[in-house]
Model the fold of this input.
Amino acid sequence: MTLAPAENGSDAMAGTLRMGLVGRGIALSRTPAMHEAEAAAQGLSCRYELLDTDAGTEGDLSEILARAEAAGFAGLNVTFPYKQAVMEELHELSDAARRIGAVNTVVFRDGRRYGHNTDFWGFSQNLLTGLPDAPLGTVVLLGAGGAGAALAHAISDLKVEQLLIADTRTDAAEALARAVGSQARSVTDLAAAVARADGIVNATPMGMAKLPGLPLDEALIEARHWVADIVYFPLETELLRVAKARGCRTLSGEGMAVFQAVRAFELFTGHPADADRMRETFR
Ligand code: SKM
Done:
């Protein structure tokens, strides 16, 4: 990955909208395909690059951002493990990014860097469109990391009565519950929490192809639960497979991946994006 400057009129990249994803181990990301397909459908020339610090992208986060900005990128998506660290590199944060304490979308404009969190909106949209009748009385959220924080705020904004947050790092779960507000609390007795929950949401990496397994004991899952996962590779995680076999309503991470990209595309380009068209790239 070269991050070549685009200002030069003779540069082959001139007129091409450039964007990228910074992260570690991101070779299987579907985000480049979604952005490039949407741009092509809108008649825009676009190149979305993977800036994988595990696969040859040199420099630290600060240097990568500076090179992308100097090369004329419209913006960058940011993923594990940089969603918190990137906040130090920005001039302004959206309200959601500030509340959540994590940024997954950086927009470069007129020498300033703006941080947004589109995972937050992506999860809500996925839940509202994918499981529109899901009861939101009590929801158990597994994982209080960067993704968990975005989901906790999204779920609490959907007016759940009780959000129960579980993480092996109890201090992280407690801090997130405090940040979310009075309807959230951290739990250590997962069995008791799940027994009174309507829904279970996985925001841990458990179930990813490179981290197979279940984020909770499968014996706790009952048919009356709805179960959502944010992992999208594979689309059917072990959690969703078990939940479906129990008769639960399930929601994969596909929709969240699509909707976070929809909002990021709109922030990068200023053009509305078509979620159904972007979802087609998963077929
Ligand atoms: O927040 C998103 C990010 O924008 C893109 C991504 C991916 O392509 O794997 C994952 C999430 O962290």
